[in-house]
Amino acid sequence: MDNSKRNVVVTGFEPFGAHTINASWVAVQELKKLGLGKDVDLHVYEVPVEYQAVQSLVPSLWKQYHPQLVVHVGVSGMATTVTLEKCGRNLGYKGLDNSRFCPHSQCCIEGGPDCIDSVIDMESVCKRVTASGLGVAVSVSKDAGRYLCDFTYYTSLYLSHGRSAFVHVPPIAKPYSGEDLGRALQAIIQEMLNMLDRAEEKIHCQHVH
């Protein structure tokens, strides 16, 4: 791995239920074609829609890549915009996954806080991406839905002390194509990285004085 480059990991989910093609994985594959610029090594993964798989995969991604940022992408049948999720929640996981399993405790991390916020200011990312004239509507949400999306996000936020993000996309062609969603992810993640850079510069300046 080239150390001058930053690692960014982006995940989508496998098909589940009515989503025989999962728009999140289509969007992530489109993003992979576009890339995040020459300074970023982009690693993409398709995540099984299984609680136990998430519990082993998410920590292994952090360990393997030491990424500057991990962005999980999921599909929402109710979404009509690309939606930035502000936080992940620990409790209330009752939905059965693709292997007909759900956590007995109905929570992600026993003893973990009820809710963890991302360090990224999603309102600000939303404003900037919207102002860039992307042609894809972006919105912000505080509820990632208490299924595998929320479970994955919380697990990632817990491990990374908030250096994770979650983006919900609508199903393909309702109204956006896979290419549109890929472009939207590219713009959103580049904005998130810019934001992390600005925050780090600020911290660095404070230490210098």
Automatic annotation (TrEMBL):
Matching Pfam families: Peptidase_C15
GO cellular component: cytosol
Molecular function as annotated in GO: pyroglutamyl-peptidase activity
Keyword set, alphabetical order: Cytoplasm, Hydrolase, Protease, Thiol protease
Biological processes, Gene Ontology terms: proteolysis
SUPFAM superfamilies reported for this sequence: Pyrrolidone carboxyl peptidase (pyroglutamate aminopeptidase)
InterPro entries cross-referenced by the UniProt entry: Peptidase_C15, Peptidase_C15-like, Peptidase_C15-like_sf, PGPEP1_Cys_AS, PGPEP1_Glu_AS
Compartments in which it is found: Cytoplasm
Catalytic activity, EC: 3.4.19.3
Catalyzed chemical reaction(s): Release of an N-terminal pyroglutamyl group from a polypeptide, the second amino acid generally not being Pro
Active site residues per record: E85, C149
Main location: cytoplasm
Its biological purpose: Removes 5-oxoproline from various penultimate amino acid residues except L-proline.
Subunit structure: Monomer.
Similarity comment: Belongs to the peptidase C15 family.
Protein name: Pyroglutamyl-peptidase I
Species lineage: Eukaryota, Metazoa, Chordata, Craniata, Vertebrata
